Amino acid sequence: MSYKNTKKSSKGSPRSSKQGGRSGARMNAKSTKQQKPDFTKAAKPVKVKKPKKTAADSEHTQVIQWYPGHMTKTKRRIEKDLKLVDAVAEIIDARIPISSRNPDIASLTTGKPRIVLLNKCDMADRSSTAKWVEYLRSENVRAIPVDCKSGRGVDKFVPVLSELLSKRIESYKAKGMINPTMRVMIVGIPNVGKSTFINRISKKNKAVSADRPGVTRGNQWFTVAKGFEMLDTPGVLWPKFEDQTVGERLAFTGAIKSDVMDTELLAVRLLDLLKELDTPEFKERYKLSDDDLKMQSYELLELIAKHRGMLISGGEPDTERAAYTLLDEFRAAKLGRVTLELP
Ligand code: G4P
Fold first, then answer.
1. Domain 71-236 adopts which CATH fold?
2. Which among 198, 222, 235 has a CA at the least distance from the CA of 79?
3. Distance of CA 104 from the midpoint of ligand 1 (Å)
4. What residues does each domain of the chain span?
5. Helices 263-277 and 319-331 meet at what angle, rounded to 10?
6. Ligand 1, atom 19, residue with closest C-alpha
7. Cα 226 to middle of ligand 1, angstroms
8. Tens of pLDDT along 318-330?
9. pLDDT tens for each residue of 200-238
């Protein structure tokens, strides 16, 4: 199942809104245009603007704001490390390939051969993942669907890397270098599975080569295959929230903590999508009929609470508990394999 756009929104409203957040992050329920994916060209720098207060800022709206103070420092470190590598492997979440990538990665890595790893494909819709691979190929970007948790697809990494760097390897050899070593760096936003990938690929080859002369102290490399080394520390960039749907989708998948947002509102947003996706797992799990899916999303949340026996005193549905359950179960892929963004 896949979902292309979130133009529709629920008219059903949560009873209350817990504005603000512990990390200064808030979400706006207002719908905005989805950012176009661009995996090849340098992304334009985007400033995170403070939202102006408008009449639309009712009790049912939230706005995500994120001011990562250490962003510049991180970018500088990545830029420094990039000088040491021949290629970059960018890990994104196959369920949200647009929202789970920082657009700065394209500009930061300009000129470096790049592989995109569509991770967590075990939780994404198969045909949508295939569409992403096709789309990226049409943009001259090599993409590999992987499930780093089980290891599926990870074995394709070295062959693709070797193909990508074949000209570079040949040119080194032409310059007289025998068995040149190619180095690669992993980049991505938090929680996309960078560590899981590094651990998985390093398990096969534990040989760790220490710092070499002329190379930044502190960097550790490990061999992933003969002639290929990987920097053991990935480049971590924060996601960008120039579009409120990005924040929502990152919260749905658990890439960012949802406890800084209104959980009920987030669940209502997710229900807007799940109603359209209409996966059998979703209906089955919450015992929903086709008619139930025609309800406003907040009413549907109430129904889910009732079906699960989540009631507060007086027999009222405990929508907050139902919201947490819905989000947890979506993140655990218990509601089916779902892709929320298509090329
Ligand atoms: P990061 O380094 O990019 O921050 O991400 P990390 O590897 O820590 O992975 C974040 C979470 O995503 C982990 O779950 C990890 O197990 C899970 N994960 C990574 N790759 C995949 C995948 O291909 N499929 C699935 N289903 N999950 C994946 P966690 O709950 O935070 O930790 P854990 O309890 O699994 O150890």
1. Rossmann fold (3.40.50)
2. 235
3. 23
4. 71-236, 244-331
5. 60
6. 193
7. 27
8. 999 999 999 999 9
9. 988 555 444 444 444 445 668 888 998 999 998 888 887
